[in-house]
Amino acid sequence: MAVPIFDDYFLSIADWPAVVKAVLDAAFTLGNAAACDLQVCEPGDVLRMAAHRGFPADFLAYFDTVAPTQATACAAALSTRAPVYVDDVTSSPIFDGQETRTVVLDAGTRSVQSHPLLGPSGRVLGVLSFHYPRLAPARTRTALIATGAAHALAALRSGG
User: Fold this and answer.
1) pLDDT tens digits for 117-146?
2) H or E segment at 17?
3) Is the whole-model pTM more than 0.85?
4) What are the residues whose beta carbons fall under 8 Å from the beta carbon of 62, sequence distance 6 or more?
5) What is the pLDDT of residues 144-156, one digit of tens each?
6) What is the DSSP string of 75-135?
7) Residue 129 falls within a domain, yes or no?
8) Which pairs from 52-60 meet CB under 8 Å and 24+ separation?
9) Has residue 6 got a pLDDT over 60?
10) 66 three-state secondary structure
11) How far apart are CA 138 and CA 159, in angstroms?
12) I need a surface site. Which of 23, 28, 116, 157 has the fewest CB within 10 A?
């Protein structure tokens, strides 16, 4: 159970590196992800890689920025403003005929869950993605982690 006073106090003194580390730690451990990334939304609805864990350099270079129309789970989450669950990258229509499928599979990802991080006004602040080497992992904790990440990013942007 969250304690709002404690949460608000923590966020009022936390800085970007502390919050990002906490988000990635939660995604990696509580979300049981083999790899995870946090992208922030920039003008033009472009996602920029802000933090990551568990990816090879070529994956990070390829996905340094992601356009909202790119064939990725994170771009789909950005565009739909809803979580995107890809249970099997090899058969997902998101990746059909796209180079992104090869890049994602080469990084060891077989399934991915991407959650838009919505601010209080409903604006997308970023996307948090969980990558797994297995098919269709559990979905329960990832939504909870993403909700906490969205709250933390919104608090940082508003100054606490």
Assistant:
1) 999 999 999 999 999 999 877 776 888 889
2) helix 16-29
3) yes
4) 100, 103
5) 889 888 888 888 7
6) HHHHHHTS-EEES-TTT-GGGTT-HHHHHHHHTT-SEEEEEEEE-TTS-EEEEEEEEESSS
7) yes
8) 52/24, 53/24, 53/27, 53/28, 54/28, 54/131, 55/107, 55/131, 56/106, 56/107, 58/103, 58/106, 58/107, 59/103, 59/104, 59/106, 59/107
9) no
10) strand
11) 34
12) 157
Residue 80: give its domain's CATH number.
3.30.450.40
Contact 79, 68 (CB under 8 A): yes
Range of the domain at 150: 21-158
User: Residue 15 domain-assigned?
Assistant: no
Token pair for 124: 């997308």
Other beta carbons less than 10 A from residue 79's beta carbon:
15
